[in-house]
Amino acid sequence: MWQDQYYEPAGPYVPPSEQNVQTLRSALAFAHQRIRQQESELHQLRDAFANGSRMNRYLMAEIETVKAQLRREREAAGKSRALSRMQQEENNDSDFLSSALNIPSPRSLPTPFHSGADGGDASSSRPVGSEEIRVEDLPENVPTVGSLGHPETCKPCFYMFNKKGCHFGRSCIYCHMDHVKRKKERPPKLVRQECREIANQVFRDAATGTSAASSNSNLEDTLRRRVELARASQVTTNYAASVLRALGRHNSVTSSTAEETGARSDGERDEDD
Question: CA angle, corner 34, sides to 29 and 39, nearest 5?
């Protein structure tokens, strides 16, 4: 048995040399560096996995939002198609009843602006000068009777901007073409503030009796003779005059309200007496 035998080493103990120790130390340091590198790579992989998970959750939430929006749009489109189908059926029913009972359609009835003096239907024509233009005589590029003379002598149709549109068709006396929106001239903000101060001063002077102006025209003349507005532009002067007119209207409304309140209080006092 090996327990009974005495173990003898193969040879005497030889300590390692300095070169072997340095080699072992360098190998151990390289192993430690490799371990740290692997730990950093593992940490980066964990961060990348966490970022990927967050991105997946975000994308799933966006997909659900888009799906919900598409469902709402599909439902709205279905409702609009159903509503248009119902309107079409109502129009068909009304046209059928009108044709069966010989009832004129409301769209074909003349308006007070189209009716002639003899009560006849003049909705399909419009007098232009000494001639009368009918719908059948309109050129193809003119949508309505009122579009003749666009854009100088026509007036835009209000119902063209409505959801249902204009029911008069080509017999409408108003223009269905595009019109350029006119921009009202207005002085800058600082100039408007100065104009309001000047108008308030003129109005206060007239109210206290320091000015001889009594009517609105005299007040405007006094305002236009101010030194500040003498060399100003016409737009600035007109703005100051509009502010002065607004003050006059506000003062008249306030005075009438005060008179009504005083008369009411006097009547109540008489009743109490």
Answer: 125
Rounded Cα–Cα distance for residues 77 and 66 (Å): 16
- The tokens of 143 are what? 């949508």
DSSP class of residue 111 equals P
Helices 216-224 and 234-272: crossing angle in degrees, nearest 10, is 140
HEC assignment per residue over 212-237: CCCCHHHHHHHHHCCHHHHCCCHHHH
Burial 39-54 (b: 16+ CB within 10 A, else e): eeeeeeeeeeeeeeee
Q: Calculate the CA 115 to chain-centre distance.
A: 39
pLDDT in tens, 127-176: 444 356 778 888 888 889 888 888 888 888 988 878 888 888 888 889 99
Contact 194, 200 (CB under 8 A): no
Q: For 70-90, write each residue's pLDDT tens digit.
A: 888 888 888 888 888 877 777
139 preceded by cis ω (within 30°)?
Answer: no
Kindly tell me the burial class for residue 176, based on how many C-beta atoms sit within 10 Å of its own C-beta (0-12, 13-18, 19 or more): buried
Find the helix or strand (DSSP H, E) in which 264 lies. helix 234-272
Cβ contact 204:219 at 8 Å: no
